[in-house]
Amino acid sequence: MGEQAAVNSKIGAAKTRSTPRPLRLGIDVPLLLSVAFLLGFGLLMVYSASWQPSMLREESPAYYLINQLKWAIVGIIGGTVMMYIDYRRWRKWVVPIMILTLILLMAVLLFGEMRYNSKRTLFSGSIQPSEMAKVVIIMYLAYWLTAKRDVLNNIQLGLVPMAVILGLTAGLIVLQPDLSATITICFLGVLLFFLAGVDTKQIVLIFLIVLVLGALLIAVSDTGQARIEQYIAGLRDPATASMHIQRSIEAVVRGGFFGVGIGKGSTKFSLPVSHTDSIFAVIAEETGLLGAGAVVVLYLVFLWRGLTVASRATDFTGKLLASGLTFWIVMEAILNMGVMVNLFPFAGNALPFISAGGSSLTMTLGAVGLIFSVGRVSSREKQEQEGRSFGAVVNLRRGDRRGRVSSSHRPSGIRR
Questions:
Q1: Do 141 and 198 meet the contact criterion of CB atoms below 8 Å apart?
Q2: What is the spatial distance between Cα 392 and Cα 386, in angstroms, rounded to a whole number?
Q3: CA dist 354 to 160, 262, 308, 369, Å?
Q4: For residue 244, how many C-alpha atoms fall within 13 Å in the half-sphere facing its CB?
Q5: pLDDT: is 386 or 169 the higher one?
Q6: Residues 312, 307: Cα–Cα separation, whole Å
Q7: Alpha carbon of 225 to those of 184, 213, 395: distances in Å?
Q8: Residues 26, 237: contact at Cβ < 8 Å?
Q9: Domain boundaries defined on the chain
Q10: What is the reported pTM?
Q11: Which of 71, 74, 95, 160 could hold 358 in an S-S bridge, CB 3.0 to 4.6 Å?
């Protein structure tokens, strides 16, 4: 009896040791890798595309690279902090943050520096509040839509207040003017309203309102009209497109499938803002369709994993926050890459993780930190739930008055 019980105990212990519970870090590894590859590749391409603009500023050839690396470090630290803070704690701070964002947008109009016929930045171009507004509006609407979820289909309690929120934010941005950021803000509002499960009739109504307002905005804007005319002309004949688009298409053609080699491209010398808005054209020339396609794939991986994090969120706010931030980053990428090949009218959207620019990079990495926060909270709660279930099984077994190791029953006629 004693020997057999001991053997059974050893077998049970061996089985317990051979099937350890899986270790969950709470971080989506494919999402992290996609961001890391895009960021690392972006630093390389910023250096390749920016040494001439650096020298034109009478700086060292690595001026923009060092500046981008500095903001990348700031963004990584900020994103890491955001990741380890429970995203639900931002609920009580989201209104003050929204007010601060509006104050910064007003400060741009009053004290911003005029560059390229617009006021968009503060402190010698170091801060661009419109980039901050994109992240903050997603955060604000995620918490607001959760709080108003039961009355969203009531136009007076749902649509009207949201229109005021978006209208105030977009209105301050359009006065800079920054048409691409204004359209982005409005699109994000409509997208989150849709994801919140609002009635289809309201979604159609919002879409029509945004379409009409967008048409009016373009009609009264000389810049908007010029961009639409150039876009239509480029669709008819690429040779009649704007010089910016012509240089971009030329870069894509020169790159071919494998590219001319990183650092060996020549179109970037005549390409406007080659290290910021036009950096995808530089990528296409120097790494070819192979490199450009790899960048597209990385953004698709980011989209897939970001929406996976959103689908696993344990509450409605987490789902809206993770999906909204994911769609925003991917939408920026689609617009930037599409503009370079004349699929969309020209817009000033940066290529996330890659284009040079401190405000865009830090806000994007901060948004990634929020997505990771949603994933970590969901993973932690799932582990706690599994732990409670495991504890319940153990308690049930201990509650049984019989021994945990079943006794051996031998026929009475057999002796040891």
A1: no
A2: 10
A3: 37, 15, 23, 17
A4: 17
A5: 169
A6: 9
A7: 18, 14, 72
A8: no
A9: 27-396
A10: 0.85
A11: 71
Section 235-239 average pLDDT: 80
User: Do 346 and 408 meet the contact criterion of CB atoms below 8 Å apart?
Assistant: no
Q: Write the CA distances from 361 to 13, 135, 258, 292, integer angstroms.
A: 51, 12, 28, 20
The burial class, CB within 10 Å (0-12 / 13-18 / 19+), for 333 is buried
SS (H, E, C) the chain: CHHHHHHHHHHHHHHHHHCCCCCCCCCCHHHHHHHHHHHHHHHHHHHHHHHHHHHHCCCCCCHHHHHHHHHHHHHHHHHHHHHHCCHHHHHHCHHHHHHHHHHHHHHHHHHCCEECCEECCECCCCECHHHHHHHHHHHHHHHHHHHCHHHCCCCCCCHHHHHHHHHHHHHHHHCCCCHHHHHHHHHHHHHHHHHCCCCHHHHHHHHHHHHHHHHHHHHHCHHHHHHHHHHHHHHHCHHHCCHHHHHHHHHHHHHCCCCCCCCCCCHHHCCCCCCCCCHHHHHHHHHHHHHHHHHHHHHHHHHHHHHHHHHCCCCHHHHHHHHHHHHHHHHHHHHHHHHHCCCCCCCCCCCCCCCCCHHHHHHHHHHHHHHHHHHHHHHHHHHHHHHHHHHHHHHHHHHCCCCCCCCCCCCCCCCC
Confidence of residue 413 (pLDDT cuts 50, 70, 90): very low
Pick from 312, 372, 320, 375: which is nearest to 35 by CA? 372
Comparing C-alpha atoms, which of 275, 278, 225 is closest to residue 249? Answer: 278
Q: What is the pLDDT of residues 42-74, one digit of tens each?
A: 999 999 999 889 988 888 989 999 999 999 999
Cβ proximity of 373 and 85 under 8 Å: yes
Decide: 343 and 399 in contact? Cβ < 8 Å: no
One-letter amino acid identity for 217? L
Q: Is the peptide bond preceding residue 30 cis, with omega within 30 degrees of 0?
A: no
Report residue 120 as tokens. Answer: 């968009």
Give the pLDDT band (50/70/90) at residue 408. very low
